[in-house]
Amino acid sequence: MGLVSDTVDSVKSIKFREALHQVITLGLIVTSALVIWKGLMCISGSESPVVVVLSGSMEPGFKRGDILLLHTNKDPIRAGDIVVFNINGRDIPIVHRVIEVHERQDTEQIYLLTKGDNNDMDDRVLYNYGQNWLEKKHILGKAIGFVPYAGWATIIMSEIPIVKYILIGAMALLVLTTKE
Q1: What is the pLDDT, as a whole number, of residue 71?
Q2: Residue 123 annotated to the active site
Q3: Predicted model pTM
Q4: pLDDT, tens digit, 9 for 90 and up, residues 113-141
Q5: Which of 44, 57, 66, 138 is catalytic?
Q6: 109: which strand partners?
Q7: Which residues does the UniProt record annotate as the domain Peptidase S24/S26A/S26B/S26C (predicted)?
Q8: Is the CB of residue 97 less than 8 Å from the CB of residue 81?
Q9: Cα 83 to Cα 91: distance, rounded to the nearest angstrom
Q10: Residue 90 pLDDT class (50, 70, 90 cuts)
């Protein structure tokens, strides 16, 4: 009788260790993603080091689904620069080109006007009511590079949320059923 109970305890112990190993593996995957994101934040100087172009407003330069790499540095923003900005009260950042820059020497304040390359009008219609210019605090970063079409997965998951849940479930199932 003792041999059977020892075998059962041994099997339970092995199953527990396998489950613990899988949970730790999942934790390492999530932690690795966070560390990579934080590392990119430190390198780029931006709280959002990469963004996905969500609309066609910047075509033909950037297409929907392109991923932009951002950088924040001390260099001044000039007309022609492509910036990513966020308007107070809006969750989704916007990628557009700076078309006008006004600098006040007495306060060192910078005012920017932006426009999408594919848009007919400037972005004043996108800004908050009564706001005619962007300030430095609105800018998340300048585009320094891009990866074409690599952001389509993000667009699909945001437009069809069930896809996101299916992928998360499949990844969790894969981690839980892997025997390594």
Answers
A1: 84
A2: yes
A3: 0.72
A4: 999 999 999 888 888 888 889 988 888 88
A5: 57
A6: 104
A7: 41-143
A8: yes
A9: 16
A10: confident
Indicate the range of 12-26, 96-110, 135-149 predicted with least confidence: 12-26
Report the pLDDT averaged over residues 52-60: 90
Are residues 70 and 86 in contact, defined by beta-carbon separation less than 8 angstroms?
no
Tokens of 134: 């962007």
Structural domains for the chain? 2-45+162-177 (no CATH), 50-149 (2.10.109.10)
Give the amino acid at 98: V
Total number of residues shown for the chain: 180
- Cβ partners under 8 Å of residue 123, min gap 6: 94, 96, 113, 114, 115, 116
**pLDDT above 60: residue 2:** no
Q: Which residues of 135-160 are buried (b: 16+ CB within 10 A; e: fewer)?
A: eeebbbbbbeebeeeebeebeebeee
